[in-house]
From TrEMBL, chains A, B:
Phylogenetic lineage: Bacteria, Pseudomonadati, Pseudomonadota, Alphaproteobacteria, Hyphomicrobiales
Keywords, in A-Z order: DNA-binding, Transcription, Transcription regulation
Descriptive protein name: HxlR family transcriptional regulator
Record carries keyword Cell wall biogenesis/degradation: no
Coiled-coil segments on the chain, per record: none
Source organism: Bradyrhizobium sacchari
Domain HTH hxlR-type as annotated: residue spans: 26-108
Length: 111, 111
DNA sequence: TTCCCTTGCTACATTTATCGTAGCAGCACG
DNA sequence: CGTGCTGCTACGATAAATGTAGCAAGGGAA
């Protein structure tokens, strides 16, 4: 597997030494959660991922993918295509109950 | 409890009719996850919340708080102070395992 | 009343992030 | 050779976040 470059893009909040803050910051960036969500079942090529993410700009997607790779959640397969690492799969399952919650949420709120 | 204005700030992704997308988008905005996290134990005044969020600009915090109120996750108490609604507390517990995950994550990744 | 302090909230100029479109180099297939 | 895919990038336009300052409303205390 190819390694993400380690030019250490600083994660806001990591300075506090509280990893939860760094994680919340990373996941709180645009498209981060969505990318993990779309990769939850199978690896996707960069273009397929873009299609799954409502044609979001490739600029941000590349940026998020690089960050997620540096964080160890996503990896680029040898034959191309982005997939979750073991760690990434754990993370994904951590907030998988969000799906059921979202359904309940809609029924209560009219957003 | 005071109600958040309902001028329907559109949530990106809600057009697809898939509530999980709307939720991922809302939570994927800056400081959203952090705000929920900081309110997890007790209500905080707007200024205390700001302090807890590394002195983030009050402009975004107000925006996020309004969105979270409209979504039904956060409410403004009568005597002042922001707190989680019942729904918000459920949501918060949904990704509470993230805390433990973050600790394991740091030990594996050098971010 | 006046003074002081805290509440939620906003204005505004600057900086940063994201968007949208286009296009690059590399590789495989025919 | 061209065709079509891959990951990835440049760049101007636009939207969002930052940082600083300050507002009006309300609650005491003197």
């Amino acid at each position: 597997m190819k390694q993400a470059s380690s030019k250490t893009r600083s994660v806001r909040g990591s300075r506090t030494g509280r990893p939860i803050m760094a994680l919340l910051d990373l996941l709180g960036r645009r498209w981060s959660l969505r990318i993990l969500w779309e990769l939850r079942e199978e690896p996707l090529t960069s273009r397929a991922l873009r299609a799954a993410c409502d044609e979001a700009s490739p600029t941000v997607l590349q940026a998020r993918l690089t960050e997620l790779r540096e964080a160890g959640f996503v990896e680029l397969g040898d034959g191309g295509g982005y997939g979750l690492t073991v760690l990434g799969r754990e993370l994904c399952e951590t907030f998988m109950p969000l799906h059921r919650f979202a359904e309940r949420w809609r029924s209560k709120s009219g957003v």
